[in-house]
Fold these 3 entries.
Entry 1:
Amino acid sequence: MIFAGTTFCSGRHTLSPPPSPLSGIAAIQLFDGTYDHLLLSADPDAAVDEFDSGWTYNTKINANFEENLEAGNIGFSTKTTENLVVRRREAGTYDWTVIYVKKIQSADDFDIVLRDTYARAGVEYEYSLSSFCNGIENSYVVQKVYSDFEGFYITDKDCLYGTIYDVDGCDTNRNISSQTLNLLNSRYLTTVSNGGLNCDSGSISGTFLKTDQTGPDLLASLKYRNEFKNRLADHKPLILKIDDGRIWMIKVSSNPTDTAGGHRDIRRLQFEWVEIGSVNSMKDLYMNGFSDVDSRWW
Amino acid sequence: MAILQTPVLHAISPFDPRREKVLEFYYEGSQSYKNRIVITDNERGVIVYDKTTDSMRLYALIPAGLLSAGRQYLAQIQVYDMDGNHSGLSDPVLFYCFTAPAFGLEGITDGYVCRNASINLLVHYSQVENERLKSLQYFLYSGDKAPLSSSDVIYSSTPSGHSFYGLQNNSVYCLRAMGETVHGMKLDTGYIEISVIYNTVPANVVFQAENNRQNGYIQLTTNIISIGYEVKNDHYTLKDGLLTLKDNYLLYNDGFQIKDDFSLFVEAQNLPLGKFLTTDHDILSLWIINVCGTFYCRLNVGDSPAVYCVPLPKARLCTDDGRFIVTDGDTMLEVIDSTYDSNDLIVFEVKRKNGIYGLDAYYKPEGIRTEVSA
C-alpha cells in the first residue's frame, strides 16, 4: 500500500542501498590537515595492513610521506634492484638465454627499449624481465610473443638486413668428419670419424629491393645493397635466419655475388656461408660479438 | 687334473671398507663349484685375506671391516669345479679403500624453502684420507623428478658453485649433485626436495613484447609507473613521516586510474571541520562534520542524495601502563566521546564493492590488548 507517496518500509526495495554513481577515480586531492598515509587499491577487500606491506598488483597509490610526496613506487624498485636482466627462451623449454643486462642506478634506468633480432620465425618465445640484487634473482615477469617474419635476415649487434623477394630455399650441408677405409680383411668399407665436426654450411640468395609508397626506390635499393655487401665482406660473424624457422651463427665463406634477375635494377645477391657457433649459447654469442652479456651471467 | 679357464675379475671401484663389498668376475668353462679370493696389500706385498667359498655364483665377498681405509690392494680370483679341478689365479686387479666422503649441498637439506627465483648451489666435500675431488655436476629436477636442467661437468679439485635461474613461484623442485673422486669413487647427494616461495615484484614495471613482422625482430619495452602530483604552494611540512598541509592542497592527478571497485585508506589527524579529501570532479569526498555535538566523518558520492556517515572513533579505555582493555571477545571497551581528539591518527576507509559504497573510521589496530571479562 502506498500512502502519501511512501510504502513505510513495506516496498520491495525500500531497504536497498541507494543508487550511487560508479565513475572512475583518476585524481585524489587532500586538503588541510596532517596525513600519515594514503593508499588506493583496486582490491575492494584490501585491509589497512597493506600500509606496511608495500606494493601489490592492485596498489595504485601508496604515499607514506616519509621524506617526500611520492605516491608511486620508484623508491621500492631502485631499493630492490641492482641489475635488470632480460632473458629469452622458447616456450616449453627450461633454459633461459640472457640477452640483456642493465645496471640500475635511478628510476629512469628502468625504461628500456630493446630489439631482439636473434629470434627465429615460427616460434613462441617467453621473455622474462628479472630483478637482480647482490647476484640473487628476486623474481621475474614473463611475457609471451609469437615470433614471425617473412624472407630472411642477416643481423648482428649493429645491423639488420633482409629481404622477402625471391628468397631461395637456403639449401645446406651438414658437415661431419668421416673417412672411409678399405681394409684388406673386410668385404665392407670401414669409416673412421676423428673429430667432433658437426655443423651446417650452405648458400642463400634473394633480391634486395627497397620500396616506398609509389613503388621501387632504385637509389635507396642501390645504397641498401652496397651496405649489405660491405657487411658481408667485413669478415665478421653474422646471424642468418630464415622464415621457415632455421637460424645459424655464420661467417661468409665465398665472394658475395650481385647478379641481375631479369632486369638490371632487380639485383640478386648470393653468398655462401659456414656455421661457426650456436645461437643458443650465451658464450658463443658473447665471444662472437653478438651480445654484451659477459660470463658472470652464463 | 685339468686346468680350468682363468676367470677375469671386473674392475673394482673404490669403496668404504666398513661395508662389505661384492666382487664380480667373469668365467667360462666347467661349472664353477667353489671360488677362492686372495687380497694382497699392494704396498707391503702381504696377503691379508685368502678364502675359499662354496658357491656356484660368479662373485666373491669381502667382509665389512676386513680392510683398512686409505690403502690400496690387489684382488685375485680362482675357481674350482666339482671334480677338484681349478683355474689359475686371475690377473690381479688394483683397488682402493677410502672412507666414504662427506658430500652434500651447503645449507640445503630436504624440505628447504627457497625465497628467490634462483638458487645458488655449492657442494661441501671432505674425505678423511684426503682423496681429492675430480669432477662434479649439478642437476635440477621437477617435483616429480623429471630432469629440467644441469650444469656442465665441473672438473676441479675444489668444489665450484652453480646457479639455477627462473624457478617458478609456489613450486617444488629437486636438486642433486653428483661427482667423482680422483680414484673413481662415485659421489651422489641424492634427490633433495626444495620448495620455492617468494614475493613477486608487483607489476609496477610494465613489460611488453611485440613482434615486428615487417622488420624481423621482437620489440621489448619496459617502463615504470610514476604518480604525478602538484601542490598549491610551499605551505607544507614533512616531519616524522607526517605531511601537514596548511592553506594548501596536494593533488595526485597522473599515472593511475580506478574504474571499478576499490579500497581507499587515508590515515590522518588534526582535520578541521569541512572537506579533507576529494577525487576528480568531486565524484567522492570526505568531510568532518559535527552533528548535535558528535563528530562524524561523512562520505558524499557525486550527485547522489544519499550520504554515508560514521561517527569518529570513541575514546578507548586503557590501564595506567597503556594496555587497551578488551572483552573476552577481543572487543575494545570504549566510551561515548563527544569530543574529537584531533591528535589521534584515525584511518578513514572508503570501499566500493559490487557498486556499493562503504565508509568506516577507526584507529589503526595497534597497542597491547589486555583481556578482561566484561
Note: Residues 367-374 of chain B have pLDDT under 50 and may be disordered.
Entry 2:
Amino acid sequence: MTTHYLVLSGLLFAIGAMGVLIRRNAIVVFMCVELMLNACNLAFVTFSRQVGNLEGQIIAFFVMVVAAAEVVVGLAIIVTIFRTRRSASVDDANLLKY
Amino acid sequence: MGETITFWVLAVVSVGAALGMVFNRKAVYSALMLGTVMLCLAVLYAVQDAPFLAAVQIIVYTGAIMMLFLFVLMLVGVDSSDSFVETLKGQRVWAVLAGIGFATLIILAVGNAIFAPEVGLAQVTAQGGYIRSIALLIFTKYVFAFEITSALLITAALGAMVLAHRERLTDKPTQKDLSRARFLGDRPSPLPGPGTYATGNAIDMPALLPDGSAAESSVNRYIARYDVEHDHLPDDPRLAEAIKHRAEEDADEREIAPRAEEQDAEAEVRDAEETPNEVTK
Amino acid sequence: MESEIAQITQHTGGVIGNAWLMIAFPLLGAFILLVFNRLTDRWGHLLGVAMSLASFVVAVLAFFELIGLGEAERRRAVHLYEFIPNLDINMGLLIDPLSISFALLITGVGSLIHIYSIGYMAHDEHRRRFFAYLNLFVAAMLLLVLADNYVGLFIGWEGVGLASYLLIGFWQFKPSAAVAAKKAFVVNRVGDLGLLVGMFVIFTTYQTLSFAELKPIEVENGTTLAIGLLLLLGACGKSAQLPLQSWLLDAMEGPTPVSALIHAATMVTAGVYLVVRSGAYFFPEGSGAALAVAIVGAATLLAGAIIGCAKDDIKKGLAGSTMSQIGYMMLGAGLGPAGYAFAIGHLITHGFFKADLFLGAGSVMHGMNDEVNMRKYGGLRKYMPLTFWTFFIGYLAIIGFPLLSGYFTKDGIIETAIEHNQVLGWLAVLGAGITGFYMSRMVFMTFFGQKRWAEDAHPHESPTVMTVPLIVLSIGAIFLGGYLVLSNRLLLFLAPAVGRPEELPTFHFVSVPGITTLALVAVGAGYAWVRYAQAEVPVVQPRGSFVTTFARRDLYGDALNESLLMRPGQWLTRIAVFFDNRGVDGLVNGLAAGIGGSSGRLRRIQTGFARTYALSIFIGAALLTGALLLVGTI
C-alpha cells in the first residue's frame, strides 16, 4: 500500500504545483501551496508507517504548525496588497523587473 | 481490504477535488474543493495509524486555515472570479507539461523503488500507547523545536496584525463632512430605489421615472453586471437596455479603479461605497 | 700640474660647525611666513629681512673663522646627518673659500634686495608672501652652494628652481607671468635632467657623490667627458646659456627685485658654481668638457649682447645683458684655475653691479607707473638723481670703464681667454664692444634726451629704503673688482678650493686686448650717444632691419624651440590620443558595450511575473528529480 499512498501524494503535489503556475488569483495560488504541503504530509505519514517510526508524524505535525503561521502572514500580505492595488492578481504585482 | 477500498475511494475523490480546485474559476469553489481534499487526507491519516494527525488536520487545516481563507475571500471580493485567458505566453502549456512530467517522475521513482515489508507502528507504540509515544517525542526529543514553533506562531500573529492594520491618516469623516460632500457632489439626494412591478420587485429592476423612462441609477452596478454576465435580463427591452447601460458604466469604472493606488483614494472610494448614496468623485 | 686642490677635512664646533644656521634662518623665516600666513602680514617683511641679515652675519663670522685657518686647512666639511644610509650618502656642508664667497654674495646682496623690496613691494597686498618666497630662495641657494655633495647641491638646485618659479609667477593674475613661470620651470627641467643623469653616472662610476671622496683628475677620459657635458647641460639650464637661454627673458615678468636677486645676481650663477665646483673633477684644464664650457660661454655672451641691443623693455635689455655677462663667466670657467678666479670675481662684481642696475631700473619703473618701455622714458636724469647716479655707476662698471669693478674682472677673463684660445678671446672682446653700445643705449634712452613720457607720468625719486641699497651696491660696483683682482687676492683665496694656475697672472693696465676692448666700448658708446642721446628717439618702435628683428625675437630661440620640440611633441601627443581613443578605448568601450548589450537582452528574462519565476523553479526541480533518478538507475 505504501506505493499507492506515495503515488497519490505525488499526484496531489503535481496538481498543486500546476495550480500555482496556472492560477492568477493570489488566494487560489495560496490554496495550491497548501495542497502541496498536504501532499508532503501524506508522504511523511506514509513513510512513518512504512519504517515504523513516529518521527515522520512529528514532522508532519510541525509542517502543519508552520503552514498555519505561513497562511496567517501570507493572507495578511494579500489583504494589504489588495488594499493598495485593488487587485489580488499575482500578475499585477510585477513592478520588480528589468 | 477495508483500507484498500477506503484508499481508492478517497484517492479518486481527493485527486478529483484537487483538479477541481485548480480549474474552477470561482475562488470560493476552489476553497471548498481544497477543504474536501483536506478531509480526505485526514481520513487517510487516520487509516495509516495517525489518528492524532488526522484530528489536527481537521481542526487546524479544515477548521482554522480554511476558515481564514474564506474570510479573506470575503474581504477581497467574492465576486472577483478569474478570467481564464492566459496572459503569459506559453505559461499554461509549460506548467501542464512540467506538472505531468514531475508526476510521472515521482510515479516512476516510487514504482521502481523496492520497499521492505511494512513495519507498522505497533512496535513503537507498544509502550504507553500511541498518544503517549507522540507526546513523549514532542516534549522530549523535539521540545526545543516545539518551543520555537510557539515563538513562530506569536511572531506570525503579530506580523498579521501589523500587516493588516491600516493607519488612518485623516480623521474619520463626520456626518457633517459626509453631507457636505454629498451636496458638493453632483447628486445631493439619495439614489432612487428599485422599481416595483406586477411581474417582479427584485432589486435588479430599474424604477421608472415620471416621464416613463427607466432610471438607470436605481440599479446597483454590481448587480447590473451580474445580470448581464448571467443573462438575467428582464423581458422588457427598456429595462434590459437600462441594466446593460448600467453594466457598461460599471465596466468603465473598473477600468479606472485599479489605477487609483493611493490609500486615501481607496479610502474615499470605500467610504463612498459605504454610504447609501453613491457619492462618486 | 699645480692645480692640486686642498684636502677636505672634518670640522666641528665654532661658527663653521654651526654653518647650518645660515640655511636655517631664512628657511625658518619662510616657514613662519607661509604657515602663519595672514597673521604675519604686518611684520612679515621685517622678519624676512631680519632672517636674511642673520644669515649674512653667520656667513661673515664663518668667513673670518675660515681665513683664520691655515691656507691648506681652508676646506672644512661639517657633517650634519645621515641622509641615505643605504647608499652611504650623508648630508653635510662644505665651507671653503668658494662656497663662502658665494654665501657672502648671496646673503649680502640678498639682504640688500630684501631691504629694497620693503619699499618696492610696499603697495602689494601679498608682500608677506613675496618675502616668504625670497627667504625660501635664499635658503635653497645657500644649500646649493654649501652642500658637500651633489645630492645636497641638487636639492638646493631644485629649491631655487621652485623659488624662481614662484617668484616669476608672483603676479600670477597676469597670464604672461604665469606662462613665463611655467616656461622657466619647464626649460629648467631639461637642464635638471642633465644634472641628474650626470649625478647617476658619477655615482655608478665612483660610488660616491661627496666632493670629499671624489678625486681630482688630470687627464680626461670618456666617462668624465660625458659627466662634464651632462653637468654643462644642467649649468646651461640654470644659467640661461645657449641652447637653454629662452626662459630668462620671459622671467622678467616677475617683480624687479626678483629679477635682480634671482635672475641676475645669484641663481643664474649657479651654473657657473657647478662648473667651477666640479672643475677639478670633471673639467680639467684643456679638456674637451672645459672647451665645451668655454664655447657655450662665448656663444652666449654674443647672443645675449645682440639681444640686449634690440630690446626696448629696460628689464629685458638687462636680462640680455645678464645672459651675456654669465656667458663671460662660463667662458672663464672653461679656462682652468686662472679663469676660475676671474669667473668668480666677475660673478661677484656682476652680482653687485647687475643688482644695482636692476634695482635702479626698478626704481625708474617705480617712479614711472611701472612703465618698462625705454622709448617712453628720456631725460629722467634730473628727476631721480640718486637713481641716475647709482645706475650710471653700474653702467660704467658693466661696460668695463677703467678702474671700476667690471674693468678688472672682465678684462681678466678676456686676457686669460686670449691666452688660451685666440678665437674665443677676440669674440669676448667683440662682445665687450657690443656691451658698450647696448648699455649706453639704455642709459641714454632712459636718462638723457627729451622727455617721451606717458601723459600721467610723474617721475619722482624713490624712498630711502630703496635708494640706500642702491648706494651700497654701487659702492661695491666701484671698488670690489679692483680689490679682488689686484695682487690676485681672490685667486689666492680661492686656490685651496679650485686650484692654482701654474703662474700667477699679473694685471696689465695697458695691453693689446685691453686697449682694443676700451676702444670698441668707446665706439659703441659713441654710436649710442649719436643715435639715442643726440637724435630723436621715436616713441613707437621702428620696423628695423633684419638683424634688429632677429635680435628682438630673441634670435628666434622660441621659434626654434617651437618647431623643433613643441610641434613634434604635439604630433606625438595627437598620435597617442588617437591610439588611446581608437585602440585602448575602443577595446574597453567595445567590451563594455558588448556586455551592456547582452545584459540588456538577458535582463528581459526578468519579467516581474512571479508565475514565470515559479515555472522556472518547478521545471528546474523536475529536471533535478529526473537527473537524480537517472543517476540512481545508472
Note: Chain A has one domain: 2-85.
Entry 3:
Amino acid sequence: MRYEAPTTSSEAAALLAAETGEAFVLAGGTDLLVRMKNLMVEPELVVDVKRIDAMRSIEATTDGGFRIGAAVPGIEVGEHEALGRAWPGVVEAVQLIGSDQIQGRCTIAGNVCNASPAADTTPALIAADAQVEIVGPKGRRTLPVASVATGPGKTSLAKGELVEAILLPPRPAHSGDAYLRFTPRTEMDIAVVGAAVSLTLKDGVITAARVALGAIAPTAIEVEAAAAAIIGSKLDDGAIAALVAACSAACKPIDDKRGTIEYRTEVAGVLAKRAAMIAFERAGGSR
Amino acid sequence: MKHDNSYTGQDFKVIGTRVKRPDGIDKVTGRARYGADASLPGQLVGRVLRSPHAHARIKAIDISKAEALPGVKAVVTADDMPVPEGLSGDLKHTLENSMARGRALYDGHAVAAVAAIDAKTARKALQLIEVDYEPLPHVTDVDAAMQPDAPVIHDWLYTSGVDPKPEKPSNVAQRTEFGLGDIDAGFAEADVVIERSYKTEATHQGYIEPHACLANIRPDGSGELWVTTQGPFVYRNVCAQLLGMDIAKLKVTSSEIGGGFGGKTHVWAEPVALALSRKANRPVKLVMTREEVFRASGPTSSTSMDIKLGATRDGKLVAARAEMRYGNGAFPGIWGMLSCMTSFACYEIANCKAIGYDVVQNRPKVAAYRAPSAPMAAFGVESAMDELAAAIGMDPVEFRLKNASKEGGQSHYGPVWGPIGIRATLEAVRDHPHMKAPLGPNQGRGMACGFWFNIGGQTCSDLNVGIDGTVTLTVGTVDVGGSRASLGLIAAEELGIPYEQVQVNIADTGSLGHNDMTEGSRGTFSSGMAAIFAARNTIEVLRERAAKMWGIPVEDVIWEAGQAKAKGSEHSNLPPLSLKDIAAKSPKTGGPIAGHNEVVADGAGVSFASHICDIEVDPETGATKVLRYTVVQDAGKAIHPDYVEGQFQGGAAQGIGWALNEEYIYGEDGRLQNPGFLDYRMPVCSDLPFIDTKILEIPNPGHPYGVRGVGETSIVPPLAAIGNALSNAVGVRMHHVPMSPPRILKALREDRRANRGPAKVA
Amino acid sequence: MSGVLVTTTINGDAVQFACPEEETLLDALRDRVGLLGVKEGCGTGDCGACSITLDGRLVCSCLVLAAEAEGREIGTVEGLVEGGKLHPLQESFISHAALQCGICTPGFLVAAKSLLDRNPDPTETEIRYALAGNLCRCTGYDKIVRAVQNAAKEMRTAKSA
C-alpha cells in the first residue's frame, strides 16, 4: 500500500486518477480503517486529505451559507457556534456519530461518501438541501448530497473525483431543522432509523419543508410527500398524522441485525414527527 | 498441618477497610503487562484461519502455498495436533474445538494456523491456505436442534440420563432432573397456576482484553506459556495433555488479565499457539481479534424454557416445574444441568421438578459466564413469580418473603441450607427507600432474586517473611478484580501487622502447587482461607523463633497483635518481639521464616441477592432507560468493601446489557451477524445510572472470617428485575431476552391490538 | 521493502520510527515505540482502550494510520505522570477502586483528562457521555464516574488554592 498526503485537492485527484489498483480517500478514517482491519478492503493507495488547506476549515460563504471542508472532524463542526445556530439539525447529526474519540476524526464528507444507508449526516444534509463540491481530473462540480450515494457503499463519484467541501445554503428567516435517530444505546451505535426535517414558517404557517429519512432504504431518501403533508399547516395533529403516514409509506427497509422492517417502518414516522416538532419550534412556531 | 476453617467471630482490625490495591499504580500508568504485552527474542506472529461455514466437511486443506511464502515459519492443521493416546471426553472436545478435525462445526471454528515473521506475512499466508469445504446442513437454534429431523451434529452423541438409552444419536447430550416431592399433587393443591414459555439469546462475556498468549516450546519439548487466563495451573494441565507434554515441562505464567468472567477458564487458541511454536521452533505470539473472540470463544447458552408455578390463594408456593433447554454450542457441556440446580434455590417449594436438556448446535462451544446458566433460569422463574404474585393479589416482595428458603430447609438440588441470606436481602429490599421513590409516566419498578452456589476447591499459598519483617504472600489464583488487596488484608489481619507490610504476588505454575482457577467466586474465599492457614503456620514458626531468642519453651510464647509475647509472670521481664525483631534475627535462629498451606477449601457459602430496578419505556419506539438500580447481596464478610461493591455493580451492569440489548444474532446461513462491539451493544457509560449497593454480612460458618464468594450472583437477578419493571411500566410481559426495542414495540403493538387484554407473549 | 519513516512527538519527546504504510498508529505505538499502555480491545474504534490524543484531540489510535502522525503531537497514558507524580485522575482511580481488571483504564484516563481539560466542572451526564466511547465490562462505570467527579473537584480546588 502507498500512503500519500498531498497538500492540494488537484494533487489528490491526480493521485486517485492515476492509481490502477484500489484507491481510497482517507479523511477521518473511521470507516476506512475498520474495513482495512477486517480485510474487507486492501488498498493499493490511500490519499490522506487532512493536509489540504482547502479541506480543513469551516467558512461562512458570501451568500450567507457555510462551506465545511471535507477533512474537518466532527468535533470542530460541533464547536462552530455560527454553524450550530444556523443548522442545528445538521450539527446534531454530526455530533451523534460515534463517541468523542470518533468525533475527533470523523468527517461529514466521509460519512456521505461512505454511502451507508444509516449515515447520520446524510438525511440532515438532504433536508438542509446541502450540496457537495467535488474536485476531479476534469475540474469541479457540485452535486446535491442526495445524489452522492447510489446504493450501500456505492457513490456517483467518478474515478479520481473526491469531495472537497460540503456546502450548506443560507438559512432563511423563521426556519429551523432537526435530526433524530433511533439507536438502542445512547452512544456508540448505528442508526436503526434516522429522520431529518427542515422547514420555514411565515406567520406561523409552514411555507417550505424538506423531510429525509435514513436506514429505511438502500440510500437515505428525501420524502416529498411528507414535506407536502405539513406545508401550509401549523403542524396541527392532522398534518402530523399525514407526515407520519407519508414517512412510513416511503420506507423500504430490510430486516437485519439492527432492526426489523416492521420496526423501522413504524419508528420512521415517530422520529419524523418528533423532528418536525423540534424544527417547528426552532423556527419560532407554536402549536 | 490441618487447620480449622470454622468461623471465628473475631473483631477485625484491617479487614473491611478500603485500602489501595497493590497493582493500582501499574494499571493507571500503563505499566501492567497483559496477555498481548510480552515479547521474546525471535518471536513470530501467529494467526488462525477460521471456517466461514456453520457446518462443513473439510475435504482437503492445501497449505503448500502458504508454507512457500517467504517469512512463513510454520503452518499447522489438525494433522499437527494429533490426539494423544488416552485423551477422551471433554479434553478431546477441547482439542477439537481449538482446531477442527475433518469437520468445521461452527462459523469461526479454527481450521488452520500460521506463524510468520510479521502480521502482514501471516495475514497473506492465511489467504494462501486452500480449504475444500463441503457444506453440511446446520442448526443454530436450540429448539430446532432438538427436533427429530434436525441435522445430527455428532453421530457418537446419545442422550444420557434417559431410560431406556436412545437407539439413535441426537443433538441432546443429556437430560438432568432435580426436585422434591410430587408435583402433580402439588399443582392439584394450587389455587392459581402460571405457565409460561421463555427464550433467551446467547451473550458473550465481553471482556475488553482479547485472548492473547506467547508460546515458547523448546526443541527438547519443554516450554512456557505467557497467557491471559483465570487459571494458569489448569491451562498448564489442559495444554500439556492436549499437546502430549509432561505437565511439569510446561510453565504457564498468567499475565494481568483484562477481564474473564468465566471466558478465560477454557483454552481456545492457546494449544494452537503451542503447536505453532513447536513446529516453528520459535516463540509465537497469538492475539485473537475481537471478531475471533466473538466467533470462536465462550458465549453463553441460548435457551428455551417452560416454567410452571402454582400457589394457594394465601400465597404459599406449592408446586413448580421447569423444563429448560440450553444450547451448548458444538460440544456437550453441563449448562442445562446447572440451570436445574439454580432454578428454584431461592424458594421453599415442597413439590418441584427442574428438568434440563443440554443440546449441541452449530455455534461456538459454550463457556462459563458469571454464575453460568443461572440468569436465564432466574429470568423465567422470577418473571413467573411476579405474574403469580399479581394473580393472587400479593405484593411481589411479600410473596417471595413468604416462600423464601431458610436455614435448615431442604434445597431442591441436594444440600440442606445453612445460614443463608435470601430472606435478609428481601427484607432489605422491602425496607429500602428505593422501593418508595415516586415514578413518572411510562416508568415502572421491578425486583427479582438470584442465587449462586459459590465454590472452594484446590488451593495452595506461600507466605514468606523477609529479613526486614515485610511479608510476601504468594497465591495461585489470578487477580481479576482487586483480590490482591483483599488477600493482603487477610494476611495482615491474621499476622496482626499493617496492610502496607504485606505484598501479594500471583505465582506462575513453576513457583507454587496447584490452584484451581479464579472461578465460581472462589478467588478471595479459597486463597483467603489458604492465606489464613499459611499465616497461622507462619505464626507457629515465629513463636518457635521467639522462644529460641528468649530461651524459653515455645508453649510459653503467644502471638498477639503482631507480636510474640512471653506469657506467665516468670517471663514478665521479656519485652514483646515484633515480626520485624524476629525476622531480623532469623538467619541465626533457623533460617528463612515461611508458612505454607495447601487445602481443598471446603465450606463455600451459597450466595443470594435481590435487585430493584426502575425503568422508563418510550411507548412509541420501545426504547428503554434504566433510571435507578439497587443491588442487595449477602457477602458473608466484605474483606474489601470497594471491590465487593465493584462485583455487585459489574454483575448488575452485565445483566442489564443482557436483558436489554446484547445477543448473538445468527443469519439463515448459520453465520454470526454481529461479531463486534459496535453491533453486539454492551452498555456504555451513558446507558447506565449509578448502581447502588447494599452489602449484607451473614457470616459463612465455613470460613474463618465468614467470607462468601461475591463475584457472580449479581448477574442473576437483572434479566427478571428488568422484565418485571418493564411489565409494571407499560403493561406488557416480555418472554424473550434481550428485551430490545423492536421486541418491546411489537409487544406494545400486539397489546394495543388486543385492546389492553391480558399480557401478551412477546 | 516499502515503508514510511515517521517523525513525531510523543508525550513531549521527539520520536522516530519506521513502519509499513498500512500500519495503524496503535500497532506502531505498541510494537515500535514500546508504549504498551495503549491497549487494543477491538481495533475498530468501538471500545476506546487505545485512546490517545493527537494534536490535543481525543482519538482511537486504532483508527489512525501511523503515517498520519508525521509532525503531530501524541499523548498517551504514559505521559500522564508529571514530575514523578501521578495525575489526580490516576490517584482518584486508585482511591475510588475505579478499576477492576484495568485493561480499559489507560483509555478511560486519557479520555477523562481530555474531558477535564475542556470542561473542568462537568455534570454526571457530561461525564457519562464523554466516556461513552470507552467500554468497561467490570465496573458498571459507577466508580469510574465517581473517580472522575472526585478528580475534577480536587483539580478545581488545587487551581483555586
Note: Chain C is about 35% helix and 15% strand.
